[in-house]
Amino acid sequence: MYLYALQRPSIFAPAWLRILLCAALCIMLASCGFRLKGVAPLPFDTLYTNISENSEFGANLRRAITASSPNTRFVGSSSEAQAVLTQLSNKQFLRELSLDPQGRVEEYELNLQFTFQLTDAKGRLALPPTTLFVTREIPYDATVVQAKQSEITTVFKDMRKSLIDRIVRHLSAPDVVEAFANPANLPMAEEPPSGAPAQEPETPTPWSQPGLMPGMGLE
Predict the structure, then answer these.
(1) What is the pTM of this model?
(2) Burial code of 144-165, b = ≥16 C-beta within 10 A, e = fewer?
(3) Is the distance from CB of 98 to CB of 108 less than 8 angstroms?
(4) What are the CA-CA distances from residue 128 to residues 45, 123, 170 (Å)?
(5) Quick one: pLDDT band at residue 198, thresholds 50, 70, 90?
(6) What helix, strand, coil percent values describe the chain, rounded to 5?
(7) What's the rounded Cα separation, in Å, for the pair 169 and 161?
(8) Which of 75-84, 97-106, 124-133, 156-165 has the lowest mean pLDDT?
(9) Are 176 and 126 contacting, i.e. CB atoms less than 8 angstroms apart?
(10) Interatomic CA distance for residues 60 and 54, integer angstroms
(11) Residue 170 dihedral angles phi and psi, to the nearest 5°
């Protein structure tokens, strides 16, 4: 019995130490502003966007916003919405990065360029026109066209997912929350949001766009 009593502290000490370390870590993370990815309610309950819900990009964007802010629902017209997310520009293009001694492309740079704005129900800018860029590099081999076509399509798809995450973070940013809380001094948008759905550009490839020039944008 005496030996058991002596051994008990050594058995339970590591557990207490782990608890203390976890508590200290939580305090440190909280003090530096760390927040786990999860629900981030948006400062509006209804949202309209001109990004087509029939496109992969539009459908994934809607799912991401709903997952982040379950109380926010999409409506069919800007007149019904407390906020309007307007796609101003959406470009996907390729740029030549390197050539082999014979002048053939060895590596391409894939680019997404997306510009959008967020307005309130009265057309005031809660988030002014903002351009986001996503870039990836990919090696190219003209002898395996089909494989490269599939790879480029997959990479652009992953880039659009990254772009959607960034859009959602912008919508839930503190300055957007503040803008909807105090809208009186917000500037008016230069142009009213268009009701026409914005279409997603086709994925560019060197073989499907024979006239493609380096750095050329595709609407």
Answers:
(1) 0.74
(2) eeeebeeebeebbeebbeebbe
(3) no
(4) 20, 11, 11
(5) confident
(6) 35, 25, 35
(7) 13
(8) 97-106
(9) yes
(10) 10
(11) -65, -40
HSE (CB half, 13 Å, CA atoms) of 68? Answer: 22
Question: Residue 138: is its pLDDT beyond 70?
Answer: yes
Percent of the chain with pLDDT over 90: 57
The residue whose two tokens read 């809208």 is: 183
Q: pLDDT of 77-113, one tens digit each?
A: 999 999 999 999 999 999 988 887 877 888 999 999 9
**Cα distance between residue 201 and residue 108, in whole Å:** 19
Q: What structural domains and CATH numbers belong to the chain?
A: 40-89+114-128+144-208 (3.30.160)
CA distance 27 to 21: 10
Segments of 50-167 assigned E as strands: 73-74, 83-99, 105-120, 125-139
Instruction: Calculate the CA 213 to chain-centre distance.
Output: 27
Q: Are 86 and 194 in contact (CB under 8 A)?
A: yes
Query: What CA–CA distance (Å, rounded) separates 142 from 206?
Result: 9
